Amino acid sequence: MIGKVYLVGAGPGDPGLITIKGLRCIKDADVLIYHQSVSPRLLDYAAADCLMVPAGQAPGKDAMNAFDINANLVHYAKAGKTVTRLNAGDPFAFGRGSEEALALAEEGIPCEVVPGVTAAAAAPAYAGIPLTDGTINSSVTIITGEEDPYMEKSKIPWEQLVDINTLVFMMGLKNLEKITLRLISAGKDPETPVAVVQEGTTPEQKTVSGTLASITGMVRQAGIKHPAVTVIGHTANLREQLRWVEDKPLFGKRILISRPVHQAAGFAEMIETLGGEPYIFPVIDIVKPSDSSPLDNAIDKVEQFDWVVFTSVNGVNHFFRAMWEKKKDIRCLAEAKICAIGPKTAAAVEKKGLLVDYMPEEYVAEAVIEGMKDYGLKGMKVLLPRADIARQVLPEKLMEMGALVEEVTAYETVTGSGDPDKLLQLLSQGKLHVVTFTSSSTVRNFLSKLPRQRADELLKDVIIACIGPITAETARKMGLTVHIEAEEYTIDGLLAAILQYI
């Protein structure tokens, strides 16, 4: 059976601009051939067994040429695979989509095109520049900036462009001076407003405004780099009134989330809402215990416990999953009191249909010990289901108070799937601005991904943010400078501390 190829536009950078159909094509792909400029967050949606094939230029690596890309599309489709070709922007707007579609058509391979948001529209929009306005203009022309304006037999009708209200030049930074001089010589007013938007919709977005006569010098002075979109026309003057993304508090910040993928989504959405770009780099993963017999034995006699102490959402979820597998429900806990560390943990318990009897004001083990003194724990049976690498201070202090503690591993923390090569690339290019840690294990595992001799250099300009004092202490012991330590030891508290610092 022959497969099928989907040519999908990923948009210009912001992963939120992917279409619903484009996202479905990523999820359904057997093979994902992607340009390395697309957001790594989009790649996270691919299936675990999807074959990932990078096809764009990456620092220190050779690019896959056009012939090889076409050959790969044909090869995998003829092998019966569903192939998604993921490229930046829109595949049919200054992309290679038409060439790839023709190559597939010649081989009789079914192909669908899934349009993407083109940078020609998105970059100006994120800079606060409309392409049209009812009172200012009613025409737009999008032009390649790659062609030399002074070449013989140009395909661009320069004299006709003079009367177009808005001109959008794509990929024309190297020819910007020639473009402006060519338009002025054709009769365009030298005082026509111009804006150049660098890497629109990403944290590297930067905008310079001027006129046809002045913009080249201003772009040089500002150090604007490729890729960039140039907008020429009077709507560029609306930017000062309509700019919006630069005014968000986390604009320009790429923030690394070191949590497991399944726990990162909420944090990532909050960062995006505030204008930042989350980069999910899971340095730990949460899995079932390799030996579940201690947990199973505890659940078999769970009715005998006077207290069950939950220290994390993971502990709650894995404990109740094990209860369900043992065919036990919450009625078994009718006589037990429940302690939860932190509001998120308490909320997870309550979702299971139980009320929390005690939650300490401070979300650390030491506060639990202090607060439970009033409950008279001597002779009480306490069940403590938690991580395999948890600190021992809690069970030790409870036993000193006379409690009969049974500590069982509800889940194990293992090394996560974050790609160290991608991490090194971002750090080396200065494209990571904040690294967040939510546990001591995230600190240790993150640093294990870096070359030890380069860690200080790579992190020297990076803001280190920790969820609480225990995590911060671990970070400092491992040689990191902690810039942010949340006062409330939750994700909300961590985000609030980052906002305050920035």
From TrEMBL:
A GO biological-process term: siroheme biosynthetic process
Q: What is its EC number?
A: 2.1.1.107
UniProt keyword Cell cycle, yes or no = no
Q: Which GO terms describe its molecular function?
A: uroporphyrin-III C-methyltransferase activity; uroporphyrinogen-III synthase activity
What InterPro entries does the record point to? Answer: 4pyrrol_Mease, 4pyrrol_Methylase_sf, 4pyrrol_syn_uPrphyn_synt_sf, 4pyrrol_synth_uPrphyn_synth, 4pyrrole_Mease_sub1, 4pyrrole_Mease_sub2, CobA/CysG_C, Siro_Cobalamin_biosynth
Report any Pfam family annotated for this entry: TP_methylase
Tetrapyrrole methylase domain residues are 4-215
Residue ranges of coiled coil: none
- Keywords per UniProt: Methyltransferase, Porphyrin biosynthesis, S-adenosyl-L-methionine, Transferase
Q: Which SUPFAM superfamilies match?
A: HemD-like (SSF69618), Tetrapyrrole methylase (SSF53790)
What residue stretches are annotated with the Tetrapyrrole biosynthesis uroporphyrinogen III synthase domain? 267-495
Superkingdom of the source?
Answer: Bacteria
Q: Hey, which family's this protein in?
A: Belongs to the precorrin methyltransferase family.
**What name does the UniProt record give this protein?**
uroporphyrinogen-III C-methyltransferase
Species name: Metallumcola ferriviriculae
